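Colleagues,

For the teaching module next term, I've prepared a clean inverse folding example: a structure given as tokens, and then the sequence designed for it. I'd like students to try predicting residues themselves before seeing the answer, so please don't circulate the second half yet.
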């Protein structure tokens, strides 16, 4: 879960409500909420240690690969860091055993070689066409 400090948006019904709380109070509430959420997330990530998961690789750097599980939305949820995943490629799946956790991310090591995917066609989402991959 995430939150944000309220700010006026043109046309929003909330603009007609009582004056917003002072900026200092917004910041204090935001930070208090996020500290609480961070602790919850940290515990949930730790519960994943020992889990075997299928990870879609999004990015590969010198030593590690980074991806996401079926439950993680790109650019929103945490990442899975795959140690020893330098030989993987974006678009591949890898079986990973989770052996560590941070506040919002988990890390693990490859168990099985990646399944190579191919791009078959495009999905028209109404905004942009996205590739559909099959394995």
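(Answer key — instructors only)
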């Amino acid at each position: 879960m995430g939150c944000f400090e309220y700010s006026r948006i043109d046309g929003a019904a909330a603009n007609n409500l009582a004056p917003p709380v002072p900026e200092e109070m917004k910041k204090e509430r935001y930070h208090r909420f996020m500290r609480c959420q961070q602790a919850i997330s940290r515990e949930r990530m730790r519960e994943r240690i020992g889990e075997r998961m299928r990870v879609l690789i999004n990015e590969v750097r010198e030593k590690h690969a980074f991806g996401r599980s079926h439950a993680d939305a790109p650019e929103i949820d945490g990442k899975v860091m795959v140690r020893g995943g330098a030989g993987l490629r974006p678009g591949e799946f890898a079986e990973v055993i989770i052996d560590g956790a941070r506040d919002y991310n988990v890390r693990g090591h490859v168990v099985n070689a990646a399944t190579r995917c191919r791009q078959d066609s495009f999905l028209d989402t109404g905004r942009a066409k996205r590739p559909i991959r099959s394995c």
